[in-house]
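[recover] target loaded
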């Protein structure tokens, strides 16, 4: 049985020009970081499952920052998807694609942005009904030129390029018709979190509004 997701993948992508890729090492940083991003106009938050604290951080954001929509990044297995849903995640992002991750997210009511880097991966994700995809790692795997090449055969697919994207090169991606938003970690620098520089994170989020398509 499938649950309808609270937000479709397209809605997740359209909310802001950038989906922040967040690595949290301290649960105490989760809520102030989420509030700082929301204050800067960014509310779709991808918390990566890369640290032991990630699930607790998602729970804290889901509980204490209702204006934010917390999602899970680095979802690599059915178990990751289940743990993320239990922690309050409302969308998922994966660095690659497998049918079992796709099915698990559907069953859990999580919209999924599956990661792809080749034509075959796009075809596999499309076969399973996913047409909004994360291009990862975007700069390393061909950058804007790759997306231009894909726009021919994969004319019906939209992308969120992530990996090596910055405020400086984001406009080149966002100018492409098959790009809806970009993903990036630059708006949540680790040192700003450690130093509690939440205003700096709000400003970095605000700076991305100028990228709006
Ligand atoms: C990731 O999953 O690590 C993202 O692609 C982030 O990449 P970035 O740190 O280059 O923005």
């Amino acid at each position: 049985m499938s649950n309808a997701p609270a937000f479709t993948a397209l809605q997740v992508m359209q909310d802001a020009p950038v989906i922040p890729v967040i690595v949290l090492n301290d649960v105490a940083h989760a809520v102030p970081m989420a509030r700082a991003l929301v204050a800067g106009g960014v509310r779709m938050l991808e918390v990566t499952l890369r640290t032991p604290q990630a699930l607790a951080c998602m729970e804290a954001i889901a509980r204490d920052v209702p204006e934010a929509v917390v999602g899970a990044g680095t979802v690599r297995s059915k178990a990751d998807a289940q743990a993320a849903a239990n922690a309050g995640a409302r969308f998922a992002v994966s660095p690659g694609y497998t049918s079992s991750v796709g099915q698990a997210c559907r069953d859990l009511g999580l919209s999924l942005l599956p990661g792809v880097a080749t034509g075959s991966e796009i075809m596999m994700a499309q076969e399973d009904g996913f047409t909004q995809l994360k291009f990862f790692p975007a700069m390393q795997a061909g950058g804007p030129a790759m997306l231009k090449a894909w726009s021919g055969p994969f004319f019906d697919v939209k992308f969120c390029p992530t990996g090596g994207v910055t405020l400086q090169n984001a406009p080149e991606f966002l100018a492409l018709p098959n790009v809806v938003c970009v993903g990036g970690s630059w708006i949540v620098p680790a040192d700003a979190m450690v130093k509690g520089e939440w205003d700096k994170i709000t400003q970095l989020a605000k700076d991305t509004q100028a990228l709006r398509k």
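[recover] notes: The chain is about 40% helix and 15% strand.
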